[in-house]
Amino acid sequence: MRRVVVTGMGAVCPVGNSVPELWDALIRGINGIAPITRFDTAEHKAKLAAEVKGFDAKKYMDRSDVMHSDLYAQYGMAAAVQALEESGVIGTLPPERIGVYVGSGIGGITTLIEEHNKLRERGPRRVSPYFVPMMIANMLSGMIAIRFDCRNSAMPAVTACASGSNAIGEALRMIRHGYADAMIAGGAEAAINALSVAGFSNMQALSCAEDPNAASLPFDRRRSGFVIGEGAAVLVLEEYEHARRRGAPIYGEICGYGSTCDAYHITAPKPDAEGGTRAMGAAMAEAGYSGTETVYVNAHGTGTPLNDASETLAIKNALGLEKARASLISSTKSMTGHMLGAAGALEAVVCLKAINECAVPPTINLLEPDPECDLNYVPNSAVEAKIELALSNSLGFGGHNACLAFRRI
After folding, report:
1. Can you tell me the distance from the alpha carbon of 392 to that of 344, in angstroms, rounded to the nearest whole number?
2. Which residues contact 197 (CB under 8 A, 6 or more apart)?
3. Are 123 and 108 in contact, with CB atoms under 8 Å apart?
4. Catalytic option among 300, 351, 400, 403
5. How much is the mean pLDDT over the chain?
6. Is 254 helix (H, G, I), strand (E, B) or coil?
7. Residue 30 class from Cβ within 10 Å (0-12 exposed, 13-18 middle, 19+ buried)?
8. Where in 85-163 does DSSP place strands (E)?
9. N or C: which end of the chain has fewer CB within 10 A?
């Protein structure tokens, strides 16, 4: 099979609107969680979110395109522009050999809410003719393909919180098996609104803490739910020999991918972690894991009681107890919140930066370890380490499990 490398990365997220800003904030343990500003939270149980700050879509898109696109698509386009400018792949391949797989768990929900309000308050003639294309979850992939003339397959992965990871993993397979030579892949989400927050709160998924440093608490026994985040991350995947010949920047190799389903429950992980274990095992097997490498796992680590315990078990099962205890594991959701369909893509960026920078970002605010979560989650401060294999886990509603594996070139 053909080797696949990453030649460009872009990010818009709660701790920075570029990859350098993201990495600097994570290594310093900067918390992107704060009181919600998008709506009045007086009647809401959840008061905090990890909002994107200081974002200007007009830096990346024409004014008309901004007006006719949902916020999730604006975040995703910005991340794609950053990644493609860094990669330089456009123009080096026929358009028919470049595809786009950028996922979203929810898509244009902000547009849906706004246009529904128009319908109720002002009647059907006031609903925007752009409503449907702004709302649907495939539109970002289509917009990126149109903007950069990418004529291969263009579609989203829509697997809840695993969307970004599944999009990257399926893009990997497109190149490996010869269907494309380069893929633009990642995830985007913008769902911080009153309806989404009320829904997640009422299913008891969100933290109701009012202190930003006591809200997103992965692997801490005080954890009580996740903090909703937003943003996007996009990677340029490219066939290795083509990237090498043109002298492209290479962050590392995507060398493994596992995708499974628990087939158990619409929201709860399977208690025995069998699905997550298989996803990790498949990614590690493809990556040629020998059992001797220094491993970093960017955990899904949402800060919900069931997820963190189940994922800890999956890591132990996949790596073996001794190796699991020796590995470095962290949840960057402690700083970025849970970016839903964009989370896996952003965490893939983090894995590649960890490999390149020989450092592992921390799980901040981990002060009271849970006995059920008894591995090394790199509490509170970053550590230096030469990572030989990085794994990124994503576990979504519906029982979707995805794991991506990365190595340095």
Report:
1. 7
2. 36, 39, 41, 44, 46, 49, 206, 228
3. no
4. 300
5. 98
6. strand
7. middle
8. 98-103, 154-155
9. N
| Averaged pLDDT for residues 281-292 | 97
Using the 8-state DSSP alphabet, how is residue 90 labeled?
Answer: T
> Distance of CA 191 to CAs 19, 71, 109, 157, 174, Å?
22, 9, 6, 17, 29
255 is catalytic: no
Query: With a threshold of 0.90, does the pTM exceed it?
Result: yes
Of 204, 372, 197, 191, nearest to 304 (Cα)? Answer: 204
Mean pLDDT across the stretch 144-149? 98
Answer whether residue 113 shows pLDDT above 90: yes
Q: Which of 161, 255, 351, 403 is catalytic?
A: 161
Q: What pLDDT digit, counting tens, does each position of 243-257 carry?
A: 999 999 999 999 999
Say how far residue 171 (Cα) sits from the centre of its chain.
Answer: 15
* 242 counts as catalytic: no
Which domains can be identified in the chain, with CATH numbers?
4-245 (3.40.47.10), 257-407 (3.40.47.10)
Q: Which of 13, 150, 255, 338 is catalytic?
A: 338
Tokens 């991918």 found at = 257
Spatial neighbors of 345 by CB under 8 A, at least 6 apart, are 103, 164, 165, 167, 168, 185, 186, 187, 188, 232, 233, 234, 235
Residue pLDDT, tens place only, 354-383: 999 999 999 999 999 999 999 999 999 999
User: Which contiguous run of DSSP H or E holds residue 135?
Assistant: helix 131-135
DSSP letters for 368-407: SB-TT--S---BSS-EE---SEEEEEEEETTTEEEEEEEE
CA distances from 369 to 220, 222, 270, 318, 333 (A): 5, 9, 22, 22, 16
pLDDT in tens, 54-89: 999 999 999 999 999 999 999 999 999 999 999 999
